[in-house]
Fold these 3 entries.
Entry 1:
Amino acid sequence: MAELSIQAAMPRLVLTLTLLAGCVHAQTAPAAPAATPVTPAATANDGEPQRSLAIADTSSEPVPGRKVGLVRGVVKRLDPIHDQLLIHTFGGGDLRIAFDGRTQLFSPENTRTRLTSIPAGSVVSVDTVIDGGKLFARAVRTSPSNAAELSGQVVDYNPAKSRLTLRDPMSPDGISLRISSSTTVVNQGQAASPQALSPGMLVRVWFSPAQNAANRVEILAERGNSFTFEGRVIALDLRSHVLSLSNNTDQSVRELAIGTLDANSLGLLREGADVNIQAEFDGERYNVRTVAAVPSHP
């Protein structure tokens, strides 16, 4: 009878031992590693090397629309450790401009060279943007020589200090140059004295940046001068009383004031019209006095 009881209890005992063994195994066996999700960046493309998702942040790269402007001056020092150019600008101050591998350098022959090859004393023009809160050089262009040229308007000439101060459209500050006994001054093709320089004149100046001294000053226009322009009207703003003319003589675009014109003369002005214009320079701008239509040539 006892033997029958033991045999009847055996199946339940085996089941109990099996369940206990399973629990022990579940507690002692190492957990299976979690499956690693596969991202598109970690998947190899056909024949291409695998690329990590850790892509360099390109948000700091200069954006063309964020262009600040043009800085012109002389290289005082190039610091390859901190990646900075120290420029003595034509406006008279020193400016630090950052650079890196994105910065392009162009020689006078318009060929790309290494930025670190620029020697101190070189005349440069730098295209800049604000990058990460700093002034950054997108492109650096070197001049063919240590002579520089600019056009601007005379703000002041001080004979006692032999200093000529100009307003250059490319620079936010005035540019101060030294006038010496060797400086040549030319007015309408004729030699003139530096005393002929007066505020409001438009001039073109050739100078040595290292010495900040003017070699030649050419007077382009002074108050009361009359000028003839001939070309095509490319823009007309009657609200601002200004027209833009593509001048045939020097292939430049001139902005001319038309505030004093009569109705007949205004009627000749329209975009695309070829005109001959007599204008007077008042020390600030060219004021149109007369307008004549010019037959267009096919």
Note: The domain at 226-293 is CATH 2.40.50.320 (OB fold (Dihydrolipoamide Acetyltransferase, E2P)).
Entry 2:
Amino acid sequence: MSHLNRSSSWPAAALAAAEKAFTLLSTPPAPLIFDTRTIGHGLPAGMVPLDQLRTLLLDPATCDAARDACWHLLVEHARRWGPAWVVAAVGMALPALRRMAGQLCAGHTQLADDIEAELLAGFLDGLRHADLSGPAPYVRLCWKGWRQARQARGGDIPAEIPELPEPAGGTPARPYGHPDLILNRAVKLKYLSGEQAELISATRLGYELIDDIAARQGVQASVLRMRRRRGELAVAAALQAGRLDPARPIPRNRRDPARAAVASRTPGVVDAAAGADGRPTAAVVRCAPVRSG
């Protein structure tokens, strides 16, 4: 860690400080080296400095399997070998984290320091504790930071959400990507209110208890459960109708028969979105894993 003590002048912003630390780790005469000899998947086999590795992993020509293999090894190093490799993992993700910070800070520049700090804290918490054994650990870590940072700006969904590569071969092939992206598109198309989207995200993805949210808001938990259920049924109907496909342009008037049917609680649409027991279909369950509370 002697690399990190070369300068007493550190940026105040969390991500700028992380970038400086990463740069020092990558700087001769003793840069931190990543061993790619066991990675394969087209990457050069050898001892690669971190800055060069980051460039390789950002290259569109690098396949997802190579990125995943590198990230699984980075996570293992960070958990076993301590602070230098924690800094290395953060530095490797900084291009995505900076994009996320820019979108989260839009309209909330006075909260920029808090947003960046929470973004980094969420990423680090996942790096230490999350199950990252599946595909795209880097993507999942960034989204964990995103969800935590949203709370620093009041929990509302930003107007733009970053586009990150999705886990290769992961499920579901539909609904078209990370659940936060689906919720954001549903809000833009007015299938959901921003409040419903945040409620679904907080309880289904962020694992907050709905009773805790109800207590903070001063409402009955049953009211929030019904609000969430209506939102999930609306998303399920939209997914089954193919309305949330990102390849589809958002119409200027943002009105279509499926949304109107959901809004008026047309039985045919709700029945299509729910099973025989009235619960949301697998389309929603896959998008937002059900958790009690």
Note: The longest strand covers residues 33-35.
Entry 3:
Amino acid sequence: MIANQPASCQKVRYVMRGKPFFYGLVFCCVLCASASLLQAGYVYVYPLEIFTNNGIYYNSPDLDLYVEVSNGEAGQVDFIIYNESLVESSIVRIYFDDNSLLGVAGIIGEDGTSFGQPATPGSLPGGNALEPPFVAVEEISFEGDSPSPHLGVNPGEWLQITFDLKSGGTFGEVIDKLDTATLRLGVHVIALPDGSSESAVTVTVPEPATVCLLGLGSLVLLRKRTAFVRCDENTDRILSAAKKEN
């Protein structure tokens, strides 16, 4: 018990901060642990978001495309493009709009995928509608070999593109460019069930440190909530209201 404080008031404080504060603490710990693992493993995941509207699948949750960016061998960075869609689809063209840090080192993929360079057309379909417009760099564009779409990245498949970091470049700089959208990866997806095709581009996500701060912010809000609990002569009423809320 806290000195000089009625027992009923202490019960109020326990009810108000017990479960919410505990769950908030757990939530914060999970976020921070995930952020730490993400940083330690040097793996960053960026969703590929459809931005065109050519058919009924442009906003379908069944289209699941993303890219993992990781620190490769010394002086290299790996981009692994995944197609985890639940509907027929094939990533057949891949574009980047900044080559200031990247030079192609190699391409490997799931059995059944085969890509070469450059992509045709040389620009990401629909990319001019983005802000700023997506201006593809030809020397780091890629296209699935014929017959298309069979050798593209189909559901359940992946393609890894390894880049050499240009002189003086670092993995951290690549991530900074992706996070600020000064480097974007775009893909063209064809062979959707309705016969349409769509284009998608990397979407920035909260950095590990930001995610952790968001968790801490939630925890602080929960903590502040308990500061407004005060004792008065009708503590039973306060206790009853607090129990209902929780």
Note: The beta strands are 43-50, 65-71, 76-83, 90-96, 102-109, 115-116, 142-144, 157-165, 185-190, 198-202.
